[in-house]
Amino acid sequence: MQIATDDPRRSDVLGLLEEHLADMYATSPAESVHALDSDALAAPSITFWTAREDDVLLGCVALKQLSDGHAELKSMRTATAARRRGVAGRLLDHVLAEARERGHARISLETGTEDYFAPARALYLTRGFTECGPFEGYALDPNSVFLTLDL
Questions:
Q1: pLDDT of residue 72
Q2: Pairing, β 130-132 against β 144-150
Q3: Confidence category of residue 151, pLDDT binned at 50, 70, 90
Q4: pTM score > 0.90 for this model?
Q5: CB of 56 closer than 8 Å to CB of 21
Q6: What distance in Å separates the CA atoms of residue 77 and residue 19, rounded to the nearest whole number?
């Protein structure tokens, strides 16, 4: 599995991101969906990575710089055919290492409270994330849980 920076507007990535957004809107009220589309993920403040094996897309993740010391994890998604293969864990470990290398002191994220998001929440907790309050413009929301990790 190779993890590398990539273009979120690449054709196979577009399909994965469209699937991601569709699932977010199917599981959460629209006002509680904070997932970004491909154009937003191409912003200069965001680094976007994909995991591939023999050029087959396995998953993606993004890191948004909020300030010099704080970053946000965005758009973590594993392709359906690649689930249960450790893709999300590898992507998360890659982003955490990159955030440390960039000198970030903290990384935070927002995810859903619904059962659909339980595997993601469990993964974040295994890496040391803890619950926190809303950050960077988010508001309290019964459909969101906020997690942070001091690096």
A1: 97
A2: antiparallel
A3: very high
A4: yes
A5: no
A6: 9
> Residue 126 contacts by C-beta under 8 Å, 6 or more apart in sequence?
none
In this structure, what DSSP letter does residue 105 have? Answer: S
DSSP annotation string for 76-98: EEE-GGGTTSSHHHHHHHHHHHH
Backbone angles phi, psi at 137, to 5 degrees: 90, -10
Q: Are strands 70-78 and 106-112 parallel, antiparallel or unpaired?
A: parallel
Residue 45 and residue 54: Cα distance in Å, rounded?
A: 29
Rounded CA gap, 105 and 117, in Å? 26
Q: Which residue has the higher pLDDT, 100 or 30?
A: 100
DSSP string, 58-77: EEEEEEEE-SSSEEEEEEEE
**pLDDT (tens digit per residue) in 81-109:** 898 899 999 999 999 999 999 999 999 99
Whether the Cβ atoms of residue 8 and residue 1 lie closer than 8 Å to each other: no
The one-letter amino acid code at 150 reads D
Helix (H) or strand (E) holding 23: helix 11-27
